[in-house]
Design a protein that fits this description.
With about 290 residues, the protein is of the alpha/beta class. It has 2 domains: about 170 residues, Rossmann fold, CATH 3.40.50.1000; about 120 residues, Calcium-transporting ATPase, cytoplasmic domain N, CATH 3.40.1110. It has 12 helices and 13 strands. The termini are close together. Bound molecules: adenosine-5'-diphosphate (ADP) and magnesium ion.
């Protein structure tokens, strides 16, 4: 009767909007005690929009947005889409970069009108009023990226991404199942903590500023502490972590790379279904025993 019960579990999963790679997947969900949640696109919608533009004292907002929009135009990153579309809307035509390069988890770099331009994380201390503007936006949960021209910080551009309506309830559901939710992101700590607060995750369970290639190490470290880890993600950046986790759950709204690396796919991209999946597998396995 074991295979039959597992097949029934798989069929019930499909009804709930959960695609299961194979019946054996249900087995590995049983011992899961920790659920690592990617932030962007998993807990949040991942659809970012341009918010504020700040300029350094000797520059102006238009120039900051023009250079940022020109460079981000060539990138697929959600931040890049928001900046490029916002810049086009506000300014119209933008210059075409002579050179462009993606730096995963950091930003974009290239040359525009003969100037070296970067948009993304900034390693050093920013001058005022940029430092204050950036800190203020981040405390409120907006992501702030720095625009640099020829090695000098020219301005700050902020983008916002909404927390999905269902995420707070999903976190409550996961806790009710005895699981510990952890928020994992490449984004800034202040932004990550604002999102965590909004969905009810403790600041101590926020792992921020993690480079794409290091997400998998976070999963391994938790496993090394004796935890059985489920990971929920959507991005190319999450694929290795999804494959390494004891249970990988992909958002159906996410990238093919994430879906292929996972054991389960949450078809509608609703995080509450992650809790349904774990509940279903526990019930299915209880039937078998
Ligand atoms: P997440 O883990 O939240 O999906 P990423 O690892 O893709 O985020 O990016 C981490 C950080 O790197 C972003 O918060 C941003 O500061 C910077 N970044 C990455 N790509 C870009 C880009 N195209 N433009 C500007 N900043 C970027
Ligand atoms: Mg993501």
């Amino acid at each position: 009767a074991t295979p039959t019960a597992l097949m029934v579990g798989t069929g019930r999963g499909a009804q709930l909007g959960i695609l299961i790679k194979g019946p054996e997947v249900l087995e590995s969900t049983r011992r899961v005690d920790t659920v690592v949640l990617d932030k962007t696109g998993t807990v949040t919608t991942g659809r970012m929009t341009l918010q504020e533009v700040y300029a350094a004292e000797d520059s102006d907002e238009k120039e900051v947005l023009r250079l940022a929009g020109a460079l981000e135009h060539a990138s697929e990153h959600p931040i890049a889409r928001a900046v490029a579309e916002g810049a086009q809307e506000r300014l119209g035509d933008l210059p075409t970069p002579e050179h462009f390069e993606n730096v995963p988890g950091v930003g974009v770099r290239g040359s525009v009108e003969g100037h070296e331009v970067t948009v993304g994380r900034f390693p050093g201390a920013l001058p005022e009023p940029l430092a204050g503007a950036k800190a203020g936006a981040e405390t409120e949960g907006r992501t702030a990226v720095v625009v640099v021209r020829d090695g000098v910080a020219l301005g700050v551009v902020t983008v916002a991404d909404a927390v999905k309506e269902t995420s707070a309830e999903a976190v409550r559901d996961l806790r009710a199942l005895g699981l510990r939710p952890v928020l994992l992101t490449g984004d800034n700590r202040a932004v990550a903590e604002a999102v965590a607060r909004a969905v009810g995750i403790d600041g101590a369970d926020v792992i921020a500023e993690v480079l794409p290639e290091d997400k998998v190490d976070v999963v391994r470290r938790l496993q090394g502490e004796g935890r059985t880890v489920a990971m929920v993600g959507d991005g190319v950046n999450d694929a290795a972590a999804l494959a390494t986790a004891d249970l990988g759950l992909a958002m159906g709204t996410g990238t093919d790379a994430a879906i292929e690396a996972s054991d389960l796919t949450l078809v509608r991209g609703d995080l509450r279904v992650a809790a349904d999946a774990i509940r279903l597998s526990r019930r299915t396995l209880a039937t078998i025993k």
